[in-house]
Design brief:
alpha/beta; TIM Barrel; binds NADPH dihydro-nicotinamide-adenine-dinucleotide phosphate
Amino acid sequence: MSHSIPNVTLNNGVEMPILGFGVYQVPPEETEQVVTDALATGYRHLDTAAAYGNEEAVGRAIAASGIPREELFITTKLWAQDAGEDKGKRAFDASLQRLGLDYVDLYLVHQPYGDYFGAWRAMQELNRQGLARAIGVSNFHPDRLVDLIEHSETAPAVNQIETHPFFQRAADQEVMRAKGIQHQSWGPFAEGRNNLFSDPVITGIGASHGKSVAQVVLRWLIQRDVVVIPKSVRADRMAENIAVFDFALTDEEMSRLAGMDTGATLFFDHRDPAMVSMIGTRRIHD
Ligand code: NDP
């Protein structure tokens, strides 16, 4: 199947497909098959993380696919436990080894906790060495993002944050736009929370285009210039989620969707002290 997926151009000139495939919560023992199916469906942009425990399986699927490396866009992330300059470099080497790759396309600071300035210095170096073609962050609120920019040589290329119809992040996106940082959504379907897949507003919009709720949500994000990485373990849904480039939402539909924003997270508030402790101290290796 062939899908022409448009790229966005990051602030360092690197091209990134606006739609990719996420593997959070895909069990390691299922991940090789799931990623093999995603690649066969036409996905070329994959999003994993050291903390997902499935980098090795992603790497095996990449190797088995025979797809030329330059046609793929591979993202992984540095966990808070590995924040710091030396620890960051070691964590990157370990991720690269597990993935079986010579470089990644995007390396992200997974959480705004611990010594992420040290991690960022390591990442800048990896970027200069060509080992990470682009570097960025995840779960950074605008204040942390601006602080990192003001005190670093290289601005992040991407900020990957929770973004879906119930938490749209328009103000965050404005700051990112002004600073030249690409907005990337995680949890585009809010993992189905708030009955997203049977939401009457989105279902109604989908009906007028012959499209599903999932397709309307992805299309809405793409029309907002937000990079998306939906996850599914099912091949039929992988195909559904990639078929979003043959229709367009009208301005009126875009504003109806804008009206769904609650301005609040459905997952973790990254500024909640209890979350800062819980996520920030989670260990993923010895
Ligand atoms: P999503 O919002 O992508 O939702 C995934 C859920 O939706 C799964 O339960 C899936 O079920 C279901 N689903 C997928 N497609 C359809 C469809 N067409 N119709 C009905 N149900 C569907 O959640 P994620 O949290 O996985 O977010 C996407 C990616 O973002 C992650 O995989 C990860 O790569 C990244 N992420 C990053 C975070 C960060 O901190 N940086 C945090 C969370 C996610 P099924 O699989 O059974 O089809």
